[in-house]
Write a sequence for this structure.
């Protein structure tokens, strides 16, 4: 797979980051809106409470000026405004009534705006004599029957809400009855640590405030027009007006926000909840600091982000684990597949090798069978040849003495006819000698027939040797060969068949006699040696020895180097097999000083074992 380029990765990361930023921003907006909504609800509650307090307070006094305007003391005064007694009576009446009602001030104004009598007539800042014709409560009342106004008292320097009611006497509007309510108490009731409760006039100047710093301060610049309008009614008397350096704006969700300028803008930001009170012609505003709401929104988003991050991390961790697992499984599968492939390949190779091997084996078998066939054919041919040779040898061996015996017999017959008995006897004796020789030959031949199934027993080696010696006595004597026998000290017994052992010894000795024929040293050495449970019998001659290449072959049947009539090539083969039947072995080697050494390896037998007749 092609790896994505670096640029693409960066672009992807940038996109993911911007998406995250966008989501965070959206979440923040959402959280902020919710926090602001809570704040707004709280503000609304406070506002409702403040409003109802104000309304209650104002409603208490609303109807009173009209009521008082109807009072005789007041009406009388307006009929004779300069009458000191009436003034005094009205003053006293107003003072008592104000005290009774809990109003700040009560006063009667003449139609030109001059104050004729007042509840504070005996106070240092008495209204009596003061002309307040510029106040709306006066001219509104004069014009419409009643007027209202709130302002800072020009004389008392105290804020108040003024209710004015026209005093009509005898069908003529002669003055205005004014009731001033102290509004300081309202502020005291709004005391609060964090939020601001303010009342602003139509010019957006703070008239009431639960905190003094903004009092008589205007929102927005105090333009000359605004100042002129305010000056007309002298609402703020001689107080100096200031400006509040805050701006109102609406946020995305529509909440009205008031924020200061400069770096501390957010710290001094308020959420505004306001309500216009038409009857009082003012606006009550509750300003709630947004700092906590903002912190709360940020905290909510941070917690959300943290949770999302945690979730993402967990998801990433799980994903990574699953990926690692999948990779491992993939690798294991690949290794398994590879192994299976290798096994299949190897199995295929092995199968092919097997087939090749089987073919080879069957080929070998065929070759072997062929070989065996050839061998057996050869053996057969060899046997036939040997049989031919043997027949030739036998006919030679037998025909000669038979011919001679016939001659001797015919001679003996003639000699007896001529009565030459002695000579005839001599011939008969010769015939007998011939017959003896023939008997020996035939016995020798008979002995070649193996009797492998006969039981083995302990055979005294010395006896077997002396019998063989006896059998070969005439040959030894004839050829002048001496057989030196050394059997050691202890009488040696071996596991064998006595006749067959004798036959082996006869074969070996007669071969040795053949070998030393015509040699100077005609000694033969027959030695027996017991080695643990084995007995080793060696026969050494001083003949030519056996050529290296022939040492293995001389034990083959019908192998012979002797001229026809002399050797059948069966002696060593038969002897070899006999030795095998005894659990022994027959081997040959050349003596370093010349001559062949035939070794018989036999199993030693306990002396006590009874000899079985063979
Ligand atoms: P044969 O004596 O009838 O030839 P054997 O089986 O007895 O048959 O002997 C096989 C051959 O082993 C002999 O022809 C001869 O060549 C060789 N051989 C046997 N004994 C001796 C010996 N003592 N020295 C040298 N050659 C021997």
């Amino acid at each position: 797979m092609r790896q994505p380029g670096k640029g693409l990765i960066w672009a992807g990361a940038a996109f993911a980051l911007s998406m995250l930023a966008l989501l965070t921003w959206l979440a923040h907006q959402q959280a902020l809106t919710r926090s602001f909504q809570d704040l707004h609800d709280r503000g609304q509650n406070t506002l409702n409470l403040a409003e109802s307090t104000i309304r209650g307070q104002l409603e208490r006094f609303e109807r009173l000026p009209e009521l008082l305007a109807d009072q005789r003391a007041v009406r009388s005064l307006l009929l004779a405004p300069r009458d000191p007694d009436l003034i005094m009576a009205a003053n006293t009446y107003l003072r008592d009534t104000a005290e009774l009602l809990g109003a700040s001030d009560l006063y009667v104004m003449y139609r030109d705006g001059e104050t004729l009598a007042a509840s504070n007539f005996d106070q240092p800042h008495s209204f009596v004599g003061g002309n307040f014709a510029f106040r709306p409560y006066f001219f509104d009342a004069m014009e419409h029957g009643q007027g209202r106004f709130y302002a800072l008292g020009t004389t008392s320097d105290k804020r108040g809400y003024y209710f004015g009611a026209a005093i009509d006497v005898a069908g003529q509007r002669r003055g205005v009855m004014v009731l001033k309510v102290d509004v300081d108490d309202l502020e005291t009731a709004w005391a609060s640590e964090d939020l601001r409760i303010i009342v602003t006039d139509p010019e957006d100047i703070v008239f009431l405030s639960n905190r003094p710093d903004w009092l008589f301060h205007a929102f927005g610049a105090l333009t000359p027009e605004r100042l002129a309008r305010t000056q007309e009614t002298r609402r703020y008397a001689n107080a100096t007006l200031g400006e509040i350096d805050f701006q109102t704006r609406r946020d995305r969700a529509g909440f009205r926000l008031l924020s200061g300028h400069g770096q501390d803008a957010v710290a001094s930001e308020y959420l505004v909840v306001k309500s216009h009170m038409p009857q009082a012609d003012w606006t009550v505003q509750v300003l709630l600091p947004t700092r906590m709401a903002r912190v709360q929104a940020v905290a909510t988003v941070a917690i959300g982000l943290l949770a999302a991050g945690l979730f993402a991390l967990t998801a990433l961790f799980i994903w990574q684990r699953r990926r690692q697992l999948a990779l491992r499984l993939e690798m294991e599968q690949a290794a398994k597949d590879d192994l299976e492939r290798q096994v299949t390949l190897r199995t295929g190779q092995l199968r092919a090798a097997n087939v090749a091997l089987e073919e080879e084996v069957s080929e070998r078998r065929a070759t072997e069978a062929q070989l065996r066939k050839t061998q057996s054919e050869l053996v057969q041919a060899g046997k036939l040849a040997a049989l031919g040779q043997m027949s030739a040898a036998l006919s030679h061996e037998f025909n000669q003495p038979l011919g001679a015996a016939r001659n001797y017999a015919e001679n003996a017959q003639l000699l007896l006819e001529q009565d030459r008995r002695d000579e005839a006897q001599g011939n008969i004796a010769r015939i007998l000698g011939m017959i003896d020789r023939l008997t020996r030959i035939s016995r020798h031949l008979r002995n070649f027939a193996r009797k492998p199934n006969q039981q083995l027993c302990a055979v005294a080696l010395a006896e077997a040797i002396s019998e063989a010696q006896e059998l070969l006595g005439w040959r030894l004597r004839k050829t002048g060969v001496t057989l030196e026998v050394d059997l050691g000290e202890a009488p040696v017994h071996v596991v064998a068949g006595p006749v067959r052992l004798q036959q082996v010894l006869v074969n070996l000795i007669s071969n040795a006699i053949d070998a030393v024929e015509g040699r100077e040293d005609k000694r033969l050495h027959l030695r027996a040696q017991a080695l643990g449970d084995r007995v080793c019998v060696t026969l050494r001659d001083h003949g030519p020895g056996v050529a290296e290449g022939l040492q293995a072959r001389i034990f083959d049947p019908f192998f012979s180097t002797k001229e026809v009539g002399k050797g059948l090539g069966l002696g060593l083969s038969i002897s070899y097999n006999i030795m095998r039947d005894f659990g022994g072995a027959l081997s040959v080697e050349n003596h370093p000083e010349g001559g062949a050494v035939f070794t018989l390896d036999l199993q030693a037998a306990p002396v006590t074992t009874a000899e079985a007749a063979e």
Q: What stands out?
A: The chain has a mean pLDDT of 86. The first helix runs from residue 6 to 62. The radius of gyration is 79 Å.
